[in-house]
Design brief:
Blueprint (H helix, E strand, L loop, with lengths): L1 H20 L3 H8 L12 E5 L5 E5 L5 E4 L8 E7 L3 H12 L4 H14 L8 E10 L6 E11 L5 H4 L12 E3 L7 E4 L15
Parallel strand pairs: 1-3
Antiparallel strand pairs: 1-2, 3-4, 4-5, 5-6, 6-8, 7-8
Length: about 200
Protein backbone atom coordinates (compact mmCIF):
# COMPACT_ATOMS: atom_id res chain seq x y z
CA UNK A 1 0.00 0.00 0.00
CA UNK A 2 2.74 2.43 0.95
CA UNK A 3 4.56 2.20 -2.42
CA UNK A 4 1.25 2.94 -4.17
CA UNK A 5 0.64 5.97 -1.94
CA UNK A 6 4.15 7.19 -2.63
CA UNK A 7 3.59 6.72 -6.36
CA UNK A 8 0.31 8.65 -6.27
CA UNK A 9 1.92 11.48 -4.32
CA UNK A 10 4.79 11.64 -6.78
CA UNK A 11 2.36 11.64 -9.70
CA UNK A 12 0.41 14.48 -8.09
CA UNK A 13 3.57 16.51 -7.64
CA UNK A 14 4.53 15.97 -11.29
CA UNK A 15 1.03 17.01 -12.34
CA UNK A 16 1.23 20.17 -10.24
CA UNK A 17 4.68 20.98 -11.60
CA UNK A 18 3.44 20.55 -15.16
CA UNK A 19 0.45 22.81 -14.49
CA UNK A 20 2.69 25.46 -12.94
CA UNK A 21 4.82 25.58 -16.08
CA UNK A 22 1.85 26.47 -18.30
CA UNK A 23 1.24 30.24 -18.48
CA UNK A 24 -2.27 31.58 -17.97
CA UNK A 25 -4.66 31.51 -20.92
CA UNK A 26 -4.79 35.30 -20.79
CA UNK A 27 -1.04 35.63 -21.22
CA UNK A 28 -0.95 33.00 -23.95
CA UNK A 29 -3.61 34.86 -25.91
CA UNK A 30 -1.97 38.27 -25.51
CA UNK A 31 1.40 37.00 -26.65
CA UNK A 32 0.21 34.60 -29.36
CA UNK A 33 -1.39 37.43 -31.32
CA UNK A 34 1.90 39.35 -31.46
CA UNK A 35 2.48 37.48 -34.72
CA UNK A 36 -0.76 38.82 -36.24
CA UNK A 37 -1.27 42.18 -37.96
CA UNK A 38 -2.39 44.72 -35.34
CA UNK A 39 -5.83 45.19 -36.90
CA UNK A 40 -6.50 41.43 -36.90
CA UNK A 41 -5.40 40.54 -33.37
CA UNK A 42 -8.67 40.96 -31.47
CA UNK A 43 -10.63 38.70 -33.84
CA UNK A 44 -8.06 35.91 -34.34
CA UNK A 45 -8.61 32.39 -33.07
CA UNK A 46 -5.96 31.43 -30.51
CA UNK A 47 -4.64 27.95 -29.85
CA UNK A 48 -2.62 27.36 -26.71
CA UNK A 49 -1.86 24.85 -23.99
CA UNK A 50 -4.00 23.53 -21.17
CA UNK A 51 -2.58 22.48 -17.77
CA UNK A 52 -1.68 19.05 -19.17
CA UNK A 53 0.27 20.60 -22.04
CA UNK A 54 -2.25 19.60 -24.72
CA UNK A 55 -3.06 22.04 -27.53
CA UNK A 56 -6.55 23.48 -27.09
CA UNK A 57 -8.58 26.40 -28.41
CA UNK A 58 -8.18 29.25 -25.93
CA UNK A 59 -10.33 31.68 -27.90
CA UNK A 60 -12.65 31.31 -30.86
CA UNK A 61 -12.09 34.05 -33.39
CA UNK A 62 -14.18 35.64 -36.12
CA UNK A 63 -11.59 36.35 -38.82
CA UNK A 64 -9.39 34.12 -40.99
CA UNK A 65 -6.35 33.98 -38.72
CA UNK A 66 -5.28 31.30 -36.24
CA UNK A 67 -2.53 32.12 -33.74
CA UNK A 68 -0.54 29.51 -31.85
CA UNK A 69 0.85 30.34 -28.40
CA UNK A 70 4.43 29.72 -27.28
CA UNK A 71 5.16 26.06 -26.58
CA UNK A 72 6.22 25.88 -22.91
CA UNK A 73 8.11 22.64 -23.57
CA UNK A 74 10.50 24.30 -26.00
CA UNK A 75 13.33 26.70 -25.25
CA UNK A 76 12.95 30.31 -26.29
CA UNK A 77 9.83 32.27 -27.16
CA UNK A 78 8.11 31.69 -30.49
CA UNK A 79 4.50 32.29 -31.55
CA UNK A 80 2.87 32.04 -34.95
CA UNK A 81 -0.20 33.17 -36.83
CA UNK A 82 -1.44 31.71 -40.11
CA UNK A 83 -4.45 31.62 -42.39
CA UNK A 84 -7.11 29.15 -41.26
CA UNK A 85 -6.78 27.21 -44.54
CA UNK A 86 -3.33 26.13 -43.36
CA UNK A 87 -4.66 24.56 -40.13
CA UNK A 88 -5.03 20.98 -41.47
CA UNK A 89 -1.35 21.05 -42.48
CA UNK A 90 -0.28 22.55 -39.15
CA UNK A 91 -2.51 20.26 -37.09
CA UNK A 92 -1.18 17.19 -38.91
CA UNK A 93 2.36 18.23 -38.06
CA UNK A 94 1.46 18.61 -34.37
CA UNK A 95 -0.27 15.22 -34.36
CA UNK A 96 2.69 13.45 -35.93
CA UNK A 97 5.10 15.10 -33.51
CA UNK A 98 2.89 13.99 -30.62
CA UNK A 99 3.19 10.43 -31.93
CA UNK A 100 6.94 10.70 -31.53
CA UNK A 101 7.83 11.31 -35.17
CA UNK A 102 11.06 13.21 -35.73
CA UNK A 103 11.12 16.33 -38.00
CA UNK A 104 12.20 14.34 -41.07
CA UNK A 105 9.44 11.78 -40.54
CA UNK A 106 6.88 14.57 -40.14
CA UNK A 107 8.09 16.20 -43.37
CA UNK A 108 8.05 12.94 -45.35
CA UNK A 109 4.65 11.87 -44.04
CA UNK A 110 3.02 15.17 -44.90
CA UNK A 111 4.68 15.15 -48.32
CA UNK A 112 3.18 11.73 -49.06
CA UNK A 113 -0.23 12.70 -47.75
CA UNK A 114 -0.33 15.95 -49.75
CA UNK A 115 0.65 14.08 -52.94
CA UNK A 116 -2.02 11.44 -52.33
CA UNK A 117 -4.70 14.03 -51.62
CA UNK A 118 -5.21 12.82 -48.07
CA UNK A 119 -3.89 16.11 -46.69
CA UNK A 120 -5.06 19.32 -48.32
CA UNK A 121 -2.40 21.98 -48.75
CA UNK A 122 -3.72 25.38 -49.90
CA UNK A 123 -2.19 26.71 -53.11
CA UNK A 124 -1.06 29.78 -51.18
CA UNK A 125 -1.15 30.74 -47.52
CA UNK A 126 0.69 33.02 -45.11
CA UNK A 127 2.44 32.20 -41.84
CA UNK A 128 3.98 34.82 -39.53
CA UNK A 129 6.42 33.80 -36.80
CA UNK A 130 7.37 36.13 -33.94
CA UNK A 131 10.27 35.35 -31.65
CA UNK A 132 11.74 37.22 -28.72
CA UNK A 133 13.58 37.05 -25.43
CA UNK A 134 11.57 35.94 -22.43
CA UNK A 135 12.61 37.62 -19.19
CA UNK A 136 11.65 35.03 -16.58
CA UNK A 137 12.04 37.57 -13.77
CA UNK A 138 9.20 39.79 -14.97
CA UNK A 139 7.55 37.72 -17.69
CA UNK A 140 8.15 40.28 -20.43
CA UNK A 141 9.05 39.49 -24.03
CA UNK A 142 11.63 41.83 -25.52
CA UNK A 143 13.56 41.95 -28.82
CA UNK A 144 10.47 40.93 -30.74
CA UNK A 145 11.15 39.91 -34.32
CA UNK A 146 8.68 38.73 -36.97
CA UNK A 147 9.52 36.84 -40.12
CA UNK A 148 7.07 35.99 -42.89
CA UNK A 149 6.41 32.78 -44.79
CA UNK A 150 4.18 32.52 -47.87
CA UNK A 151 3.49 28.92 -48.82
CA UNK A 152 3.33 28.28 -52.58
CA UNK A 153 3.48 24.48 -52.93
CA UNK A 154 5.85 23.06 -55.56
CA UNK A 155 7.00 26.50 -56.70
CA UNK A 156 10.56 26.96 -57.96
CA UNK A 157 12.71 29.90 -59.04
CA UNK A 158 11.89 28.89 -62.63
CA UNK A 159 8.12 29.12 -62.08
CA UNK A 160 8.18 32.31 -60.03
CA UNK A 161 11.37 34.25 -60.73
CA UNK A 162 12.06 34.33 -56.99
CA UNK A 163 15.68 33.40 -56.13
CA UNK A 164 16.93 30.70 -53.78
CA UNK A 165 18.69 33.33 -51.68
CA UNK A 166 17.81 36.97 -50.90
CA UNK A 167 19.29 39.47 -53.31
CA UNK A 168 19.58 41.97 -50.48
CA UNK A 169 18.82 42.37 -46.80
CA UNK A 170 15.20 41.47 -46.17
CA UNK A 171 14.63 40.35 -49.74
CA UNK A 172 12.31 37.40 -50.55
CA UNK A 173 13.64 33.98 -51.47
CA UNK A 174 12.24 30.47 -51.96
CA UNK A 175 12.91 27.72 -49.45
CA UNK A 176 12.23 24.01 -50.13
CA UNK A 177 11.54 24.63 -53.83
CA UNK A 178 9.62 21.98 -55.74
CA UNK A 179 8.13 20.40 -52.61
CA UNK A 180 4.71 20.55 -50.96
CA UNK A 181 6.11 23.06 -48.44
CA UNK A 182 7.84 25.37 -50.90
CA UNK A 183 7.55 28.87 -49.49
CA UNK A 184 8.72 32.44 -49.86
CA UNK A 185 10.80 33.58 -46.91
CA UNK A 186 10.90 37.24 -45.93
CA UNK A 187 13.25 38.12 -43.07
CA UNK A 188 13.09 41.87 -42.41
CA UNK A 189 16.23 43.57 -41.06
CA UNK A 190 16.30 43.28 -37.29
CA UNK A 191 15.76 46.43 -35.26
CA UNK A 192 16.05 47.15 -31.57
CA UNK A 193 13.69 48.88 -29.18
CA UNK A 194 10.61 46.73 -29.74
CA UNK A 195 7.91 47.25 -27.14
CA UNK A 196 7.71 44.51 -24.48
CA UNK A 197 4.89 42.00 -24.57
CA UNK A 198 2.47 41.50 -21.67
CA UNK A 199 3.91 39.97 -18.52
CA UNK A 200 3.38 36.27 -17.90
CA UNK A 201 0.72 35.72 -15.24
Amino acid sequence: MYPRIAFLCAASLVSLATAAEIPSAEWQIKTAVLAAPLAARDAATVLGYDPSGAVVTLREGTNNLICLADNPKQKGFSVACYHKNLEPFMARGRALAAEGKNPKEVLNTREEEVKSGKLIMPDKSVLNVTTGTHNEANGEITDQYTRYVVYIPYATPETTGIPLAPLGEGGPWIMDPGTHRAHIMINPPKSSGAAPAPKKK
